[in-house]
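Q: Focus on the shape:
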Amino acid sequence: MNYKWTLKDAVFTKDKGKVFSCFACGGGSTMGYKLAGFDVLGCNEIDPKMMNAYKTNHNPKYAYLEPIQAFKLREDLPQELYELDILDGSPPCSSFSMAGNREKDWGKEKVFREGQAEQVLDTLFFDFIDLAEKLQPKVVIAENVKGLLLGGAIEYVRKIYEAFDNAGYIVQHWLLDASKMGVPQRRERVFFVALRKDLAGKFLERVDLYTNLPKLVLEFNERKIPFSEISDDTDIRIDLPKVSGELWYKCKRGESLSSVPESNGNFFNDIKVSKENVLPTLASQNKVYHSDIPRRLNDAEYLLGATFPTDYDTNKMKAFYMCGMSVPPLMTAKIAEQVYNQWLSKL
């Protein structure tokens, strides 16, 4: 699997099993499962613009535009969703991010970007586990931010383990770095992978919540891909606001614009990249600038950095936001491939 690919030329075999994706955004994880050979039946998403982009690029069989709290209570779901190999989800996680307010935001309702109903972000993971308990897929895969493992947030990890246990699953988690998985950006994310208890018995005589777990090896150490490989040096336009533009000229490559004394400590999320290094995390709130040309990364660079197909239709959404909100397809594909090889293919 290569980070440079197109939907037009991709061959999706759909022979590894069936997947349904929650909090799907524009379909980053969906594309990863497809690359790994899975048949993705559809998605649940709350943002209408994201859903439109998902439909444009994936033409899902089932698409539910509604909060997961409503989706998990549906009594009219098709039988196919009760026969899943993998239930996938990336519950919104900004309240655990080190870039946010963290503890100050825990338990508070938040209004989403597109004006959807308020939700308490740190409970959405448990709504997702409720859905898993209802659908009983063979495997559940959930992605979240690194901050979930730091400080007081680790208590949520314990609760997540207990919720999966009560739902009938044995769960494990890994902190993975996308730059070691063939993705041209440093993106550390926590992945929870849970196996249904009745299936876990096929790998172990005895399983329990924390100590005796079905073996799953998720170790990746692929070549790191520097920004120079995806840089579009033909795009030489100058496209910077006045203040950040002045700071860009004074900022060293590979550093935040906040490192310039004149920034007064502001512009922390404004980053001037280095061609010799891997891109930083492409987050939706970050402003990432080219190393040598006074502009933000263009759409082509964002799509490559996020391992989205180069012919992906953003449906008039900003590519930086779409990529920042999504799991890199190649990251999901590498995990899904191992889950199939080590578990699903043996069931």
Q: What stands out?
A: The chain is about 25% helix and 15% strand. The chain has two domains: 18-224+329-346, 227-323. The domain at 18-224+329-346 is CATH 3.40.50.150 (Rossmann fold).
